[in-house]
Design a protein that fits this description.
Chain lengths: ~200, ~200
């Protein structure tokens, strides 16, 4: 028979083993804001995302419509690899190269077939997604965080597309290509920093 | 019972126990008002309702049958909750429904209405089952369930009607972009749930 009262060792073990009662499964607002600000505070991400939008505007229809739809989905696939811990060598280098190549594509006003543009942007999306996925914080509400950073990425694309629309005017075209040049230079700087 | 066994059984059970992961009452409000807020404060539910609303509103050949199927699903799920059954993995199923609906909205191709009804009834059913009320009394819990069902249904109809207004090229693209954002978010969270 067990003796009356509670054994102190059993109580201590119970305390050690207890998991928190997670009525709050994460900080909802903090999660969303954290996700929203995450891509914005990574200048390499910002440069590449804006470049995607700028290039989409240069490529015109249907690329301008397809890129903002396809990119988040491919990025999520890359993010899944990051979350699952699947290694992707040279992630940061890939992100820096994406800024260089996308910036150059805008400077040179390249117009490859849509499938080449889609594959190129898709490959870069996997690098960006992997970096995001690997950095998802455990404390924040996962849904709110993911929504936040997908929305931020999408808004950066839309900002690039909006700027890219200046290319309808001759002076705007120069401004857009200059912006592409600045993004390519920033990409080179990120590469040099990583080397 | 052997004293040594019972001494180890208590901390042993505590070691295998998982955390209690109920959705807290939104803003600490319970009862009917808390139920009304519930679908709006559980991100997975909100994503699923938005994605379904977008999809139903986007499909020009569909009537309102998928929306009514959703209401039937929610009612069924909430009804089962009253029997004290709270199955696990419902939140993940809700996210899976959001993923499928978001993808279909992003692709923007014609989908059979029967498929839409099936998806809607499944999403509604899972949302219902994923909304166990946290209330002290039975009456309060029932009021919370009624509020949750009403709020989910009204939210879906609102999202659907708004999506039906999106008839210009730009707004249709915006709906597709929103669908892809919802699907991308759901993919990431589901991956995270697999790992953690």
């Amino acid at each position: 028979m067990m003796r009356g009262g509670t054994h102190p060792i059993a109580m201590l073990l119970c305390l050690l083993a207890a998991t928190p009662a997670l009525a709050h499964t994460g900080d909802l607002v903090g999660g969303f804001v954290g996700g929203l600000t995450h891509p914005v505070f990574g200048p390499d991400h910002v440069a590449a995302m804006v470049a995607v939008g700028l290039w989409g505007a240069f490529l015109g229809s249907p690329a301008i419509f397809l890129l903002p739809v396809v990119f988040p989905l491919v990025m999520a696939a890359g993010g899944t690899l990051g979350v699952l811990g699947v290694p992707l060598p040279g992630t940061e280098i890939g992100i820096a190269i994406s800024a260089v190549l996308l910036g150059l594509a805008v400077v040179l006003a390249l117009r490859p077939p849509i499938w080449i543009a889609a594959v190129l942007v898709g490959v870069f999306a996997i690098f960006h997604g992997h970096a995001h996925g690997a950095e998802l914080p455990p404390g924040a509400d996962a849904v709110a965080y993911s929504v936040g950073f997908v929305v931020a990425t999408g808004l950066l694309h839309l900002a690039g597309i909006a700027i890219g629309y200046l290319a309808h005017w001759p002076a705007g075209r120069v401004a857009v290509r200059t912006a592409g040049g600045l993004i390519a230079l920033a990409g080179f700087a990120f590469l040099v920093r990583l080397a | 019972m052997n004293a040594r066994v019972s001494l180890l059984a208590v901390p042993g059970l505590a070691l295998v126990a998982g955390p209690a992961m109920a959705h807290p009452p939104p803003l600490g409000i319970t009862g009917f008002a808390g139920g009304l807020l519930h679908p709006l404060f559980v991100p997975a539910h909100l994503l699923a309702v938005l994605a379904l609303g977008l999809l139903i509103g986007q499909q020009v050949t569909w009537g309102r049958m998928p929306a009514f199927a959703f209401v039937i699903g929610v009612s069924g799920g909430l009804g089962i909750l009253t029997l004290g059954v709270v199955p696990s993995l419902m939140n993940e199923l809700v996210l899976s429904c959001a993923l499928v609906a978001g993808l279909l909205a992003a692709i923007a191709r014609t989908v059979p209405e029967a498929a839409g009804c099936s998806l809607a009834v499944l999403a509604g059913f899972c949302i219902g089952l994923d909304s166990p009320p946290e209330a002290l009394s039975l009456a309060e819990a029932n009021l919370m369930l009624v509020g949750t069902g009403l709020s989910a249904a009204v939210s879906l109809f609102m999202a659907m009607e708004i999506a039906r207004w999106l008839t210009s090229d730009w707004t249709r693209v915006a709906a597709r972009i929103l669908g892809s954002w919802i699907a991308a978010s759901a993919i990431l969270v589901l991956a995270l749930r697999v790992v953690r």
